[in-house]
Amino acid sequence: MDMKKLIKTAGPIALLFLLLFVLEKTLPTTSMLFVVLKKGAIYALVAVSMNLLNGFTGLFSLGQAGFMLIGAYTYGILTIPLEAREAVYQYFDGGIVSFTVPVLVAIAAAGLVTAVFAYLIGLPVLRLKSDYLAIATLGFAEIIRAVFQWDKLGPVTNGSNLLKRFPVFTSTLFPFAVAGVCIAVIVLLINSSYGRAFKAIRDDEIAAEAMGINLAKHKQMSFTISSFFAGIGGALLAMYQTTVQAAAFRATMTYEILLIVVIGGIGSVTGSCLASFLFIACSEWWLRFLDEVTYIGAFQVPLLSSGFRKVVFSVIVMIIVLFYSRGIMGTKEFSLDALFRFFKKRFGKTKKEDVAG
Amino acid sequence: MKRVLAISLVLCLVGVLAAGCTPASQTSGNVIKIGVYEPSSGDNGAGGKQEVLGMEFANTVVNTVEIGGKTYKLELEIVDNESSNDKGPSAAAALVSAKCSVVLGSYGSGVSIAASDVFKNAGIPVIGASCTNPQVTLGNTHYFRVCYLDPFQGTVLANFAVDNFQAKTAYILTKLGDDYSAGLGNYFKEAFVKLGGSVVEETFQEGNSDFTAYLTTAINSGADVIFAPTSTEAASLIIGQAVSQGVKIPLMAGDTWDSSVILDAAKGSDLEVFVSTFFDEGDNTALGSEFVKNFKKWLNDNPDKKNNNGGNDIVAAVSALGYDAYMTAVEAIKKAGSADPKAINEALWDVKLTGVTGDIAFDEVGDAIRNVAYIKQANTTDASWIFVAIQGVE
Amino acid sequence: MGFLETNLPYIMAGVSVGGQYALIAIGYTMVYGILRLINFAHGDIFMAAGFMMVYLSASLPLYLSIPLVIILTVLLGFLIERSAYAPLRKAPRMSIMISAIGVSYLIQNCAWYITSGLAKQYPAIPWISESVTVFSSTTKMVTVITPVLTFMLVAALVLLIKHTKFGMAMRAVSKDFETSQLMGIKINSVISTTFIIGSFLAAVGSLLFFSNYMTVTPTAGSMPGLKAFVAAVFGGIGSIPGAVLGAFIIGICENIIKGLGLTTFSDAFTFALLIIILIAKPTGLFGEKSTDKV
Question: Which of B128, B333, B347, C209 has the smallest number of CB atoms closer than 10 Å to its CB?
Fold first, then answer.
C-alpha cells in the first residue's frame, strides 16, 4: 500500500523533472516559458511558506517580503566571489566579509539567518492577533528594508546599492529541485502531528489550548519555519534576478504573494503552486500583448497600451477574491486520483444526460 | 460547482491566451529586430520615453539595412522595464525571447546593471544610450555605451561649482538604492573634496515626497550649491519645494535633469538650476542642427509622440543619444554583415561613426570616448534652456 | 532665535504633514471602528483624488473642479464599499482584508495605466499655494492652513457623532454590530456614510497634501496611507481625537528625524512606533478597553 502511494507521488514528480529536462534540451533557451517556470517555482515556494502560516496556522502575517529580503541578502553576501567584491562594494572598500561559501551552503544559511530573525521578531509580534499581527509584520518588513539600506551597515550590505556577481543558476531544474525539496518538507510537516496542531490553532485557539497544545510554542514554530523557507525563496529569487537590492522588496511583493495564496486557495499547497505559475505566466507572459498598441487591419484596438495588462490582471484577481473566495483548490489538494475522479464524474454525468435526452 | 466554474474560467483564460499570443514572435525572413529596453513608466518613465523617441525617430530615418545584397527591414521591439530593478530582468527576457539581434538601453543605470546578465547569457550585445554609471560596462564584453561616464560628469560639475560659484560647501542629496544617483553623488564628492571643498550628504528613500526637511538642512548647513542627481520625478518635487521655501542656493544636477519636467517645475520662480548634459539643442554642427530640425518636425507631425516628449518639441539630450545608439547599432549590423548577435557584438568594438552628439568610438571597456559636457541653465521665465558653457576636465 | 530659525521649518513641515495624515487617519479609524477592517484601499482613494484634480483642473476652472473632485472621491469610496466590501459582510475578516488589498492593487494599476506610471504635476491653487514667511522661514500657505482646517473638520465631525441621530447610530454600530442591527439601525446606510465621510476627508487631505508637494504618482497614496493607519492605531483605533493626535505626533517626529540626519529611518520609525505601541498598550492612547481586539 505504502509502496503504491510512494509510486503515485514520486512518479509524477519524476515525470515532471524528465519533462523539464526534455523541454530544456529541445526548446530554445530564450523562450519565455523558462522565465515563467523559474520565477513560478520560486514564487511557489514562497507562496507555500506563506500558506503554512496564513492557511494552516491561521496567522495572518504580511512580512514575507522582509524575510525574502534577508534570505536574498544573506545569499548574496556569502557567495559574491572574492575577486568581484572590490567592484561590488565599490563605495565600501570591498566590504568586510572576506570569505565565500558554496552555493548550497549559502542557500541553507539564507534560510537559517532568516529563521533567526523571524524567531526574534516573533517573540513580541506573535502575541498580537489577526489584523494587528498583519500590520505589525508589515511594519517589520519595512523596518528590515530600511535597516538593510542603512549606509552604516554598508561594509556588509553594500548600503542601498546593488549586490551582484554572485553565482546564479541557468537551468530551470535547479529552482525546481530546491523549491521541490522545500515544499515536500513543508507538506511532511503539515501532515505530521505538528501540522495537526497548527490546523487546530487555526480552527479554534481556545479549543486547541484546551487540548493541551502550547499555543505560543506552535505559533512561534510555524512562524520561524515559514520564514526559513521564505528566506530560501529569497535566495532563489536573488539567483533568478542576478542582482539584489533592498528597495525592491516592497509591501507590494507581499501583496502579490498573498494574492497567489488566495487564488490558489488558502490552505491548499498544490493550489498555491498552481496559482503561482498561473500568476507569473499571466503577469509576465500571456497578458503582455495587452500592453502593446495593436492594429487589426487599420483599426487600432482601443484601450491597449502600456499598463493595461495590469488593469486586466487586477480585475481578474478581484473577481476571484470576490466571487471565488475559495480560490482554485479551496482547501483540497490536487492529485491525479482526484483529477481522474473529477473527469469520471463529469463524464458520467453527461452520459446520464445523454441517456435522459 | 463554484470551484468547477473557477477552474474552467482559469482554463479558458489559459487556453485563449496561450493560443492567442505564443506564435507572433518568430523572426520572419527579412527582418532584423532591435530591442529597446527602456522605462516608459515609473521613476524614470518620462526620460525613458524621450530616449525611445530618439530611437523611433532614427528608425524612421534608417529602417532598412543591406546585408549581402539582401535588404533587411529593421524593426524596434520595445519593452517597458518600469524603472525597476526587479521588473527589469523579466522585460529583458521578453526581448531575448523575441530574438532581438541587438538591444538598446536603458535610461537609468540601475536597471541596466540589473538586466545585464540576462543579455550576457543570451549572447546579445547591448548599447546603452544614457546610463552613465561605470559599473554598466565594467567587467563585461557585451555592454557598450555612447555617452560619457559619471566620474567624468561628477568632476565636470564639481569644477563648474568651484569655478562659477566659488563654492566651499556643497549639499549632496541622493536617492537610496539608485546606482546612478549614489554613483554620481559620490564622484562629485570626490572631485569637490579634491578641489578643497567640504560636503554634507543626505539620502532619501523611494516614494519620499517631502523634501522640505532636506532643503532646510541644506540651508542650515550653509551650502553654496545643492547637488541633487536624482530622477526627474524627485526633481520636480525638490524644485517645487525649493521654490516655496524660497531657496536661494543654486541647484545642480546631472544629465537626468535635462528634461522639460524640470523647466515646467522651475517656471515662474527665481531658482537657479544648472545641469550637465550630452547635447545642446543649439548645436551648430551640420549633423546636429539637421537632427534638431527634423526631429522637431517629426514630433510636431505626430501628436502622440509629442505627448511622450512632455507636450513640447524641446529636444532632450537623451533623444539625441537614443538616436545615436540606434545609428551605432545599424553601423554594427552593417559591419558584421549579419543579424547574428555574436557577430554584431564583435563588430561593435571597431565601429566608428559621427553621431549627432559627437564622434563615437569604443574604448577597451566598451565606453564611447568622450571629453566634453554641456552645462545649461534653466530659463525660468519662458521654460527653456540657456546654454552656459562647454566644460571639460583639465 | 538661532534655534528657532534652524528648527522651525522641520516642526512646521511636521505639523502640516501631520494634519494631512490626520485627515486620512480619520477614514481608517472610523471604518475600523465599525467594520473591524483595515481599509488598505484608503490611501489609494487619497491618491485617486489627487489624479482627479490633475485631470479635472486641466479642463475646468478651480471653483468647479475642487467640488467635483470631492464629489467623485466620495463616490469612489462609496462604490468601493458597495462592490468590494458589502458582498463579503458575512465572510471571515481575513477575506475582507484581502479584498481591500485587491482593491488597492486595482486602483494603483488603473492609475498606472491612465498616467503610464508617470508623475503628474499638481495644479497650483491660488492663495494656498503661495509662499508666506513665518518667523523668517519661508513656506507655503498650505502649511499654515492645514492644521487649522484639520481642527475645524475634526471638531465638526465630533459634533456630528456626538449630537446627531446618525452619529448615535454610528456609535451604536461600532459598539455592537449585531445588536444595533436588531434595534432597527439600517446598518448598510451607516457603513456607507462612514465611507463617504472617510473619503470626503481623504479628498480634502489630498488637496492639501498635493498642493504642498505638487506631484502625484500612482504609488503616492501607499506610504501616507500606511502612516495614517499607524497614526490611527497609535491614537487608539476607533477614536477620532486619538487618530488626530497620533497623526500629528508621527508627522512631527518624522520630520525631526529627518532633521537629525537619520533620513533612512524616517519611514522605519513610524513602524517601530507602531510595534512598540501594539506591544506596550495595544488599545492605543485613547482606545476603548476591549478584550477581543488583541
Answer: B347
